[in-house]
Amino acid sequence: MDLPLIYHPSYVTPLPLGHRFPMSKFSQLHDTLLADGVAQPHQFHAPELPPLAWIERVHTPDYVRAYRDGTLDAKAQRRIGLPWSPALVNRTCIAVGGTVLTARLALECGLACNTAGGTHHAFPSYGSGFCIFNDLAIAARTVQHLGLAQKILIVDLDVHQGDGTAFIFQADPSVFTFSMHCEVNFPGTKQTSDLDVPLPVGTEDAEYLQTLATYLPDLLTQVQPDLVLYDAGVDPHVGDRLGKLALTDSGIYRREMQVLSTCVSQGYPVACVIGGGYGDDFEALIYRHSLLHRAASEVYRHYRL
Fold first, then answer.
1. pTM for the whole structure
2. CA–CA separation, 137 and 50 (whole Å)
3. Residue 9 — pLDDT band, cuts 50, 70, 90?
4. Of 155, 170, 192, 282, which one's alpha carbon is 20 to 30 angstroms from that of 30?
5. Average pLDDT, whole number, for the chain?
6. Is 182 left (phi over 0), alpha (psi -120 to 50) or beta?
7. Chain center to CA of 289
């Protein structure tokens, strides 16, 4: 079996003209992986809409209902930062299903990658920072509920702290949250992860990768997770509009190889989501996101999963 990948065909629906986060990013990533020979069509799995019960294991029923019905108040809608539409509701729910499917395939195959996901700023009763439902938290809760995994490690390397995820699991020893992020960046008020590693503005490849190497192997030994959920945000890149760190393309690729090979070589299955990435050069941004899948394909072949 080849590396399992998750494709989101509903993501081709664009947001209003001029919006700076085109929803075509997700389908374009899929197309790039095929065009560059990183993946073949048979590797892609399309998720389905998840049961509401999955979402409500993390989010309050009132919030879920208000978002789905389009009745959130204006302040709550502004905090999310995305214009509401029925198409976005559908996309958001399918994204949750996609990350749950990624987790299930990772547990089955050892490694799996989403072409979306990483909405780590969503809290139980509200969305924030372009994040509506917290797919990482929902995936963790769902695989636990299904009896597929109990101890979960969330490795969040998006440039912004995974504040919603940290809050959701703050009193839950079955899920360990690790966030390595820029110390001076959104969110202004940080939550407390099980392990937070704030990095100074302008951190470059060598320092970043050495810091990661200092923590990740020991974390795996300490936590011994049944599953690793990896948020591979590319917004630490030097060209990212919202990042403030200074990783290169090479640094991002080396980061992905480091995370995946460290986990897989020790027998820990990894489910990957793409996380954040914000750039004016759309093609360059798609390429940066594809580095996760390129690295995962290499690791999958090397370890003969």
1. 0.94
2. 14
3. low
4. 155
5. 93
6. beta
7. 11
